[in-house]
């Protein structure tokens, strides 16, 4: 049985991410291996979690995964940890489903995790009692093991909150954290700044660790995590054979690009790919590789530096012209277009995709996506007729799209590139605004690796010895 907790809140923006970082860092500082998880489709919070715990964070998502896959993901990645911490999203009972089958409370029940409820104490005293009592009574199958009072204004307010909760509820207060500007992580149009973009990441995590260690009863919290009485969903370790790594994929990871699911990178490795990371802002050439992967991120905030790296832009453009297999999502799609315009300034980009990217003040696509693959999709094992779950969150739109542009997906739900389409296909490039997740419903990592092998074999049979970049470097 692995000790485990789910950190949730009464509503979004209550500070649960900051407290999760502080808990992971504080428990790690005690010498406990901590494995973090994040509910839902989210890239930024897991990057912070990984910095705080020193271990990759894994997403648990009802949209793209079945319940069995969620449990399997939890089982597989909680191995070797002393405590697993799952951060929920939004409020504890918030979700799209009226019956609550996709909310954080449902996830807590699925992985048998006691819930620690974060309560934003801004402007509240006696009213905290009916709030917490209501959450505790709403779903009797959810164990709310305690609350952490966050953004507390004063010692007087904290004393009142504690007294009220002790008198009117049976939910213990596990700690209280005062308002603290040092804990703030800058936000912008797509959410929090990533730790890849700021030099303050270590300072923010250290501050979160300190306030949690000072304000939260960690011993009591550890005891609650160890008290889960239901059968643990953590299975014994299974030794899996190491795959033969016969494919090299260059993966962009830097301040501009960094949105990758940890288990998608694991799936690429299991499919036989060796991921070689490079920096689009600093590296003049692609590393030797059989393919290129560019995930989402914030290329608009780094547009001047990306555009100034003309050597890499030219190298990528030429590699694509020679047939290099490429998969790009959202920010990666934007990078491959002719230009990015943001706040009235336009910067040239790779130019492999016949379109221009324009940033807008309001989201152009935000939420869950349902895709249907078309015959244009270049990857083997086309999922014709099947619905592919994905998600999107972009303030960007493509303009001046070539009229003969081909698309790999019809968008049944969501926006994508627009006009009911997503997934531009140019040569061996597939680039979309939608973010995929490698699951049983769409094993994209295995399909992409199979496509890379297929194209490499095709070129070899054609008598060409310079297999894209690998043989020429």
Number of strands: 24
First-to-last CA distance:
49 Å
Oligomer kind: single chain
**How many distinct helices?**
13
Biggest β-sheet description:
9 strands, mixed
Structural class: alpha/beta
Q: Stretches where pLDDT falls below 50 for ≥5 residues? A: none
Provide the gyration radius in Å.
23 Å
Fraction of residues in helix: 25-40%
Account of the 3D structure:
The structure is a single chain. This protein has 473 residues and is α/β, with parallel strands linked by helices. 30% of the residues lie in helices and 26% in strands. It has 13 helices and 24 strands. A 9-stranded mixed β-sheet has the order 12-10-13-15-24-23-22-19-20. Strands 3-2-4-1-5-6-7 form a 7-stranded parallel β-sheet, sandwiched between helices. Strands 17-16-18-21 form a 4-stranded mixed β-sheet. Strand 6 (144-152), helix 6 (155-168) and strand 7 form a beta-alpha-beta unit. The chain is elongated and about 75 Å long. The chain starts with a strand and ends in a 12-residue tail after the last helix.
């Amino acid at each position: 049985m692995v000790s485990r907790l789910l950190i949730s809140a009464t509503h979004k923006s209550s500070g649960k991410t900051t407290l999760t970082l502080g808990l992971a860092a504080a428990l790690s500082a005690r010498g406990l291996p901590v494995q973090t998880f994040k509910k839902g489709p989210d890239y930024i919070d897991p990057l912070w979690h990984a910095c705080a715990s020193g271990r990759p964070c894994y997403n648990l998502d009802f949209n793209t995964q079945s319940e069995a896959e969620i449990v399997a993901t939890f089982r597989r990645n909680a191995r070797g940890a002393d405590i697993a911490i799952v951060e929920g999203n939004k409020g504890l009972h918030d979700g799209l489903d009226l019956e609550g089958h996709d909310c954080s409370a449902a996830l807590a029940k699925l992985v048998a995790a006691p819930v620690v409820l974060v309560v934003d104490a801004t402007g509240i005293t006696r009213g905290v009692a009916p709030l917490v009592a209501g959450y505790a009574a709403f779903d009797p199958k959810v164990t709310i093991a305690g609350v952490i009072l966050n953004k507390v204004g004063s010692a007087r307010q904290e004393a009142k909150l504690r007294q009220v909760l002790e008198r009117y509820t049976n939910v213990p207060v596990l700690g209280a954290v005062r308002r603290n500007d040092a804990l703030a992580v800058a936000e912008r149009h797509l959410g929090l700044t990533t730790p890849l973009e700021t030099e303050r990441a270590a300072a923010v995590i250290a501050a979160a660790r300190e306030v949690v260690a000072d304000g939260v009863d960690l011993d009591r919290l550890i005891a609650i995590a160890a008290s889960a009485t239901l059968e643990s969903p953590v299975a014994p370790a299974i030794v899996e054979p190491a795959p033969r790594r016969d494919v090299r994929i260059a993966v962009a990871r830097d301040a501009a690009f960094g949105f990758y699911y940890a288990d998608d990178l694991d799936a690429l490795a299991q499919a036989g790919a060796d991921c070689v990371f490079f920096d689009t802002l600093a590296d003049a050439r692609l590393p030797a590789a059989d393919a290129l992967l560019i995930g989402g991120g914030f290329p608009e905030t780094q547009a001047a530096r990306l555009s100034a790296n003309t050597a890499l832009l030219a190298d990528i453009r030429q590699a694509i012209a020679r047939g290099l297999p490429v998969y790009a999502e959202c920010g990666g799609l934007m990078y491959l277009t002719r230009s990015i315009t943001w706040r009235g300034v336009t910067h040239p980009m790779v130019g492999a995709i016949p379109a221009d990217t324009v940033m807008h003040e309001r989201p152009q696509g935000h939420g869950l996506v349902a895709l249907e693959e078309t015959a244009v999709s270049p990857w083997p094992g086309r999922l014709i007729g099947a619905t592919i779950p994905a998600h999107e969150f972009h303030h960007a739109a493509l303009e001046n799209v070539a009229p003969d542009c081909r698309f790999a997906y019809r968008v049944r739900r969501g926006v994508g590139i627009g006009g009911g389409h997503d997934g531009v296909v140019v040569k061996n490039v597939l680039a979309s605004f939608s973010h995929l997740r490698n699951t049983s419903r769409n094993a994209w990592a295995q399909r992409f690796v199979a496509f890379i092998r297929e194209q490499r074999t095709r070129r070899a049979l054609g008598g060409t010895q310079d297999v894209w970049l690998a043989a020429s470097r």
